[in-house]
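Suppose you are handed only these lines of text.
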Amino acid sequence: MLIKWKKTSDVKPSEITPKDVFLNRRKFIQAAAIASGASLVPNFVNSSLATTAPGYDGKKFSNVNKSAFGKAEKLTTYEGLTTHNNFYEFGTGKSDPFRNARTLEPSPWSVEITGHAAKTGTFSVEDIIKPHQLEERIYRLRCVEAWSMVIPWVGVPLADVIKRFEPNSKAKYVAFETLVDPKQMPDQERNALPWPYVEGLRMDEAMNPLTILAVGVYGVHMPKQNGAPVRLVVPWKYGFKYIKSIVKISFVEKEPPATWNIQAPSEYGFYSNVNPNVDHPRWSQKKERRITGEGGLSALLTPKIETKFMNGYAEEVAHLYKGMDLNKFF
Ligand SMILES: Nc1nc2c(c(=O)[nH]1)N[C@H]1C(S)=C(S)[C@@H](COP(=O)(O)O)O[C@H]1N2
Ligand SMILES: [Mo]
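From them, the structure of the protein bound to MTE can be written out as follows.
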């Protein structure tokens, strides 16, 4: 797309250089991004990485069962969901993970299962998530920063994984940890957050049929910037609960620590259910901007849409919070 900055009549031909056009365009895009409250979505199609095979290794899953979850809404493009990310282990900017995550080595990858369960130990991802069980689940992801996407995940219900390890009655919560390895995750040399990134769910939330462990998107192995090789997806909660590149799952008795709750307890609670009726102390949660990944600049200017209670999954999950004051347990 070509954007005109001044009327041609205002500019002498000698003034126009390709560099000016580029810099002005960049300024305009930045201004538009700031004005809209969204971040810059790089134009993947025009980037030098456009020919890179999708997913962390260019491989597709051979057999993904379709599921009834999610239709109706327009999917965020592959380019959209791999260029606008939060993954602070690779930088705090939205396009940092896209540019920096190549140093992650998702294969081989093992996950330690520990805590109050009959079976514990260290397993490969393939041992934990059987290829023949894979399902496609189209879910909305609502980030606490008031943008959202619609993503076709590939994964398995977390409940099916948990059952195989036979947790006992002391296992009231499930705790998750991301890898710590500054060689693979260079921004762990900085302290934007305490490492490892940690998250947790109450056992009934973990066992809810909506909760999945995801290993891919769009039928391909999980892109590195999206949390390869395995990450959590809890669609009725804010995106920061969707912990990436998991190396440890623990069955624990007490509410486990959660990174953003540690970082700013008055702003981010343990539950973090999507709730338009409970504002973040610094901004409203009533609306969100849908990132479609289409249309370059126009994607930044999409009108805001209403945020739904529990991200639209209330029918499936509202019963989990019966009798709880959601202003207190936010
Ligand atoms: N380890 C780790 N997991 C993380 C994050 C992170 O910084 N580190 N960011 C979270 C946030 S804030 C969001 S919105 C989602 C974004 O997932 P996506 O990049 O696949 O859209 O990942 C979550 N998982
Ligand atoms: Mo987020």
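What can we learn from it? The chain has one domain: 13-321. Residues 13-321 form a domain with the Sulfite Oxidase; Chain A, domain 2 fold (CATH 3.90.420.10).
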